[in-house]
Design brief:
With about 280 residues, the chain is of the alpha/beta class. The chain has nine helices and 14 strands. The strands form four sheets. It has a five-stranded parallel β-sheet.
């Protein structure tokens, strides 16, 4: 197919991508970010990618370099410039994947949503699912492409800061969900960053991102709805947090698939909250 693609859902299958891989406005992004809980020397480097994929470098390009906390979102001006350098146009259609299945790709999806770009979806199951379906891969390489004309239409409600979260702690219409493991949430296992306090944001509830994923794919809509209902029985507006703003976006993806609206991700997440001594914590 060579037509101009429009995506109206947050998640697409590998078969859908395979069917539309020739679309003229399609851009495939590899949004892989190494897991902070896995030592780099223990992780096998992936040598292959989906054909024509471009690397969306969350850490070194699309985060503020030298910032106090990791993965801090770029300014609107910088994001627009970097997206253009990546060859993204206003009328592009983006499918983003990662090499774990569902891990960091939702962060890329959420960043673009925050910048007012909706023609984007996460590849369910990522590269593992693509390979398991025996679809074509290529050796990792950089492709040449024209500079795009991407334009930001910023939505400030989608990525929020610690001051906003602090002001909403006791708001009965808001529910904070923490995507970290139960051990980190309840202070029974240490933070991967030793300098950060243990615990969780007051009045927050724990929904580990791993609970939303099965065999590297996001669970079915009905299962996701059940998981969110268990921690959000009042159907409140949701705020997502995690370690550094990455897996909170997995919850944002799951909530979107489940039919929720009015969602926010706390950009600094626990790395920031646990580092700032004036902010209250629970254990």
């Amino acid at each position: 197919m060579s037509n101009s693609l429009k995506i109206n859902k947050p998640l697409v299958s590998v078969n859908w991508l395979h069917q539309h891989i020739e679309a003229t406005n399609l851009i495939v992004l590899n949004g892989t970010l190494p897991k902070v809980t896995v030592k780099s020397n223990e992780e096998k480097r992936e040598e292959y990618q989906i054909p024509t994929a471009r690397f969306f470098d969350i850490k070194k390009v699309f985060s503020v370099q030298g910032a106090e906390f990791p993965n801090t979102m770029l300014s609107v001006v910088d994001f627009e410039a970097k997206a253009r350098e990546l060859g993204v146009y206003k009328d592009s259609c983006i499918v983003v994947y990662d090499e774990y299945g569902i891990y960091s790709a939702p962060r890329v999806w959420w960043l673009f949503k925050t910048m007012g770009f909706d023609n984007i979806a996460v590849l369910n199951g990522g590269l593992p699912a693509w390979k398991n379906a025996n679809h074509l891969v290529e050796e990792k390489q950089e492709h040449h492409f024209e500079k795009g004309d991407f334009t930001v239409n910023y939505n400030s409600e989608l990525l929020i800061d610690s001051t906003t979260v602090l002001n909403l702690l006791n708001n009965p219409l808001k529910q904070i969900l923490d995507a970290r493991s139960a051990g980190r949430f309840h202070s029974t296992e240490p933070e991967p960053r030793a300098e950060i306090r243990s615990g969780h944001i007051p009045n927050s509830k724990n929904l580990p991102y791993s609970a939303l994923v099965s065999d590297g794919k996001l669970k079915e809509k009905e299962e996701l709805q059940h998981l969110f209902k268990e921690v959000n029985s009042n159907n409140s507006e949701l705020i997502f947090s995690c370690g550094s703003g990455i897996t909170a976006c997995v919850l944002a993806l799951g909530a979107t698939v489940s039919g929720y609206h009015k969602l926010s991700v706390y950009d600094g997440s626990w790395t920031e909250w646990g580092s700032l001594s004036h902010l209250p914590i629970e254990k």
